[in-house]
Amino acid sequence: MAKGPRSGHGPLTGVRVVELAGIGPGPFAAMLLADLGADVVRVDRPGGAGLGIDPASDLTNRNKRSVLLDLKSDVGPARVLDLVERADILIEGYRPGVAERLGVGPDACLARNPKLVYGRMTGWGQDGPLAERAGHDIAYLALTGTLSMIGKPDEPPVIPANLVGDYAGGSLYLVVGVLAALQHARAHGEGQVVDAAIVDGAAHLATMIHGMLAAGSWQDRRGTNLLDGGCPFYGTYATSDGGHMAVGPLEGRFYAEFIGLLGIADAFPDRWDLAHWDELRAAVTERFLTRTRAEWTEVFDGTDACVAPVLSLTEAPHHPHLAARSTFVEHSGLTQPAPAPRFSATPVSVRSGPARPGGDTAAVAADWDVPALRPADSPDTY
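Above: the chain sequence. Below: its structure as tokens.
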């Protein structure tokens, strides 16, 4: 069992995780494990990550602890292996072969701890022609076909921030993978390597779309389908004040309520007549431009018309529903999304703010029983 302030918070209490610091999906995956109660020790490097933000604001390092180790030094890898011996999971996001060259690859770690789950997070995967190449979210989405689906038909594809690739196709699949492997390790005493590649996850996310494509109910052209903005009753519309409303009444009774409240109930009796979709979209566009976002929000409030205002990142925490559920919380002066999902018997929470590089070396050395991590007469960096 992990000791210290991380105990007793969430279903993963007692699970120990070593995170080799990186950027993007690895830190987010480790944050999710930490949110769920795991004792995550982040091994930061001197100088920090190349694209890192101010550690005081890096919410992906909340609920974690940090030690500072130079893996290129003589003793850095040995200290990591000391932590690995006591860990359940390790997460790294280096290019293939880098961890091996540093002395903390799967063979070295599993030799030290045969039950370890070794999670590897990359964009291209551990093998294949592009495995050694650099890349980012946008390229992974591009090659999997996922990016081609997002946007209007007569415009370039729209970049969905780094949510679909890095986090949905990467972090979440890594978390599912390491937790599944942890279950196997605890049942059979056998650790293993989890190869989580963003290209694999991003492709997998589109499984339903591939099924629709095979069935002939999805065109391989963006902005022409039911769920990609091609449908006039599944999309976004501008309001008179420059705001937007999101519209999605796919089911018949919801659509009937929508067009009634919008004021075009008798204009288009057959909504599935694709020949009139452009006319229907023009009518919906015209109607939404007659009022402000706040006015339309009031019109659709309390209905099943499946219409919602498009809120900004700073507006979202103040929405009454999200406020009532505490979907966003404030901790250490930072407003942030609360841990998800929720558990009835083992509730989760934001327990600590972003870990500062090296700020927890003494506590981790004591809690994990790794005295060599911080000798009394030495600084925190090795």
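Residues 1-7, 377-382 have pLDDT under 50 and may be disordered.
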